Amino acid sequence: MDGFTVTDLAQIPSPSLLVFQERVEENLRRMVAMAGGPDRLRPHVKTHKLAPLVRQQLDLGITRFKCATIAEAEMTATVGAPDILLAYPLVGPNVRRFHALVRAFPRTRFSTLIDSPSAIRELGHHDLSQPIDVLVDLDIGQHRTGVTPGPAAVELVHIVQRTTGLRFDGLHAYDGHIHDSDTTARRNACDAAFEPVERLRHDLERAGVAVPRIVAGGTPTFPIHAQRPGIECSPGTCVLWDAGYAAKMPDLDFLTAAVLLSRVVSRPTPTRLCLDLGHKAVASEMPHPRVRLLDLPQATPVGHNEEHLVIETPDAENWPVGSTVLGIPWHICPTVALHSEAWVVKQGRVADRWRIEARARQLSI
Length: 365
Known about the structure:
Layout: E1 16-20, H1 21-35, H2 51-59, E2 64-67, H3 70-78, E3 83-86, H4 93-104, E4 109-114, H5 117-124, E5 132-138, H6 151-162, E6 166-173, H7 183-206, E7 214-216, H8 222-225, E8 231-233, H9 243-248, E9 258-269, E10 272-275, E11 291-293, E12 300-304, E13 309-312, E14 324-329, H10 332-336, E15 341-346, E16 349-355
Parallel strand pairs: 1-15, 2-3, 3-4, 4-5, 5-6, 6-7, 7-8
Antiparallel strand pairs: 1-9, 9-10, 9-14, 10-13, 11-14, 12-13, 15-16
């Protein structure tokens, strides 16, 4: 099972998420080494959503974190993270929730993103004792959020500077559209996408506007941005890794540290197995395969429902009902969000159970 031996699987109900502690620790060491030190990192919490993994990163000297939800930010602040960027557009009641978050954790420095004048106006209306730090979110090719680097971005910076209660804290440039397997193609695409960001920083600084930080990239472009001086790198998936990035990015040297436990619940035909690994246990937003089943390399998925994954395999007769099957999810981040807890494996045995607290939409705020 690719080194994922667990001696006491019988005690774990299925489907479940297993996290292998030694592999996580090694991934964190490799992440810090790739960045050139913990001060170059602002790792994304959205992949694991786990307080114990934030603590482990703090122990390694990582002090800055990136989150996608207020719940993730609250969890990260609760364990003592000193610097948290909420990298998601704040609209509606979430603006008030963010203000409440800042009040609730005065020892944590919070920042967030803006990409429109209306967002700036709404975020600036508060009664906090200190201004809120904001980064201008730049669209460098994904066309999801952000503003194109150039005059529109410069104007947003000036609006922030004129808005009481806000402080310009830098630029955010996420290149999540870059997934080239070829390393040269990936580097060329990353450099081309980042060039307008560098030009924008130069133009702002030449106009007398300091750019305190640039937060850039995700996991695929992490090693490229790590070679740029002064960039805060924000990888996320590399902490747990998954089958998707392992297949697409063989050059990235990270270990699979999270797997799914399932069981055969039925064998309806001589070549067909049904596993308890439905939509509610493994992320289903991508085409098949959604999970790489260990020890069943010839399995072909033929059906996926809320509680069932149906596969065809010539080896079905060797997998009686009740057999345990381990699998590596294709996309780990939304898969973690489907589980309320993770079973922690250390030295081949279950050592702990971690509550995945930040999967919730709301904690206390």
